[in-house]
Amino acid sequence: MSGIQENQMLEFAQSVIVPIGTGKVPKEIPLTQGKVAMVDDEDFPNLICHKWYAHEAYYRKGLFYAVRSVHNPDKQIMMHHAIIGKPKSGMVTDHRDGDGLNNQRHNLRHVSPRINQQNRHAPKMYSAYPGVSRFKNGNWVSQLKINGKSKYLGTFELEKEAYTAYCDAVKELKA
User: Fold this and answer.
1) Considering only 16-25, 73-82, 120-129, 159-168, which range has the smallest mean pLDDT?
2) What are 94-144's pLDDT values in tens digits?
3) Quick check: is 99 in a domain?
4) How many domains does the chain have?
5) Phi, psi for residue 55 in degrees, rounded to 5
6) Is residue 3 domain-resident?
7) How many CB atoms lie within 10 A of CB 148?
8) Domain of 45?
């Protein structure tokens, strides 16, 4: 292998390890529930001195934010607001990658609610396989259309299992 190829491979490996666009490795702040928030070096000293906890968003299961309480237990400060400030009226804070625990500055921005919704990272609902789609609960459903009518084949935890059921039904029709 030539020296140029080795250098290119090394550069690629480093680009995979370091988050895109930053050139820096993020610091981690421990949260409750075994979670961590990622922040930039310059924000770490101001944030690590507080007790932060993982708070699941009420509007989407599995989406967490880093939050801390202030003197009044009913009042909270969100980590992303502690980093870039609260947005102006009519604006919201958006995490570009959809990860509420990635609080690196390059990932945070103030946007309109419309832009925030357009950047929503919803779970994959469609499959690359024919006859397979996803329920909101995360399971995969398999169905077959015969003469314009849908035939339900079952619900599965794995996408491949749903596709196997579809293939089996197609083979059975051909037999």
Assistant:
1) 16-25
2) 999 889 999 999 999 999 988 887 777 655 666 778 888 888 778 899 988
3) yes
4) 2
5) -120, 120
6) no
7) 5
8) 21-118
